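Work Package 3 (structural annotation) set out to generate three-dimensional models for the target panel prioritized at the project kickoff. During this period the team completed the workflow that converts sequence records into discrete structure tokens, so that structures can be stored uniformly alongside our sequence database. As a representative example, we reproduce one entry of 195 residues exactly as it appears in the project archive.
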Amino acid sequence: MALIGLVRVSTDKQNTQRQHHALDPICLKVIEEKASGKLATADRPDLLTALSYIREGDLLTVQEVDRLGRNLLEGLIVLNDLFQQGVGVKVLEGIAVGEHTERSFILDLALALAEDRRRDIVRKTKNGLETARKQGKVGGRRPVVDDDRRAAILDRRRRGESIRTIAAGVKVSVGVVHKTLAEAKASFDPAADED
């Protein structure tokens, strides 16, 4: 029996070190996934890659059951998909710790608690941001585009550079370039804001 590990975070900015520390020493192979836990199994290519390594008797191994799905429904769908394919799951931490080859109350409970914990984090974050706003503080991320980058983006666009070339040259995402150009257009053309 081999253990095939799955490390999952939702975004590129999240750290996977803690999960790797738990899985790397015990798993034959560890696949890292940077995708929302709200997606179904078929929409998660890295999960499918991990499953392609699994042979009869092997176990898909995760640090906590919420690495399979971030909310109850999606977690249950992923578990159901796995169990229908004959894939067992090994959970290293949390109330669902152990090996599972079929759905159980403890797995359902662990996913429900993970969903509740996530909902609580979102609520506390919103409350904190609202409190900060009432105190005159602005929450959220710092803007990616400062005045120098904004000027560089606009200047490069005036010279006819493509969006992708600008993004690479200024070291921002394509979306940031689009947003900066749209904001600049709106500030020069007040009618652009009207719908």
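The first helix runs from residue 17 to 23.
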